[in-house]
Amino acid sequence: MPGVALVTEDCSALSAVVRAALPRFGLDAELPLAVIHQRENAVFRLGAAEAPLGVARVHRRGYRTSVEIRSELAWMEALREAGVRTPPVCRGCDGDGVQTVAAPGSAELRDVTVLGWLDGTTLEEDASQEAYRLIGRTSASIQAHGRQWAPPPWFSRPTWHVDALIGRDALWGDYAALEVLSAAQLELMHRAAAIVRRRLDAFGRGPDRFGLTHGDLMPDNILMVDGAPVVIDFDDSGYGWYLYDLATLLAVKVGAPDYELVREAWLEGYREVAALPEAHRALIDTLVMARLLLGLGWMHTRRDTLLAQQFTDMTVALACWQAERVLAGEA
Q: What is the pTM (predicted TM-score) of this model?
């Protein structure tokens, strides 16, 4: 399960949280640890690099409740039991997949989860059309499972409706609050957001287009394992438009030469599992715009992190590119 260390919190403090939690999972508190990824959650490799045992996640303060995290794990386990490849969930000695602990000397409680290790390559290392076709199949399978699955009564995940994606109540933050946007760029975003809102409201949230889905199909949330994709990081899974998963994959490719190739390969794979009316396909670029507006909000609320500082300019450029296309009627 390779990754890149994108550090947003003090690693020594987070390591202490992991070590406090490990005995609750029946693991040695002195296992070697290494940060391998950090965006919302800090993800640590457990064990030596040559023989990793799994990953531990220290969940971001205030982002997901313990019940929401348990719900994430419950769906991952149900998907895995149904034959959709997801990371194996490791449960604590008390049977709970979420262990809430404080580091020694600290009163702050943090939720920790542990997942099994996956040996694979990132999508960036295997970005073939065939890989994207297989990802489309996997996305359709995940969504098909969500349509027929009966969640436990306590199941709780976010709903990614229009107001959750754009505007003052967006779950990642309001795009309009991003201070680096010029007056002209902000006006451009407002005009594009109005089109997105109108189109999505008209499209609606019927059961053939809106339901339980992954919600964050970024390239770094996909591992190619033995030639097949495994989707990881269900931290933003919830109820949303089904084609939003494709939009999250395409948002980082706006303006790139392979944008259309990736889109068509994904759609080909998706249609091998689920029907996709043409009216749905017409909303793809609108959802890409929604994702980029949400991304601008993320860059604002996480502006103090190194990750946001590294990617804000790029996200603004992509959002402006897509907004011009939307306003021109090209998307």
A: 0.93
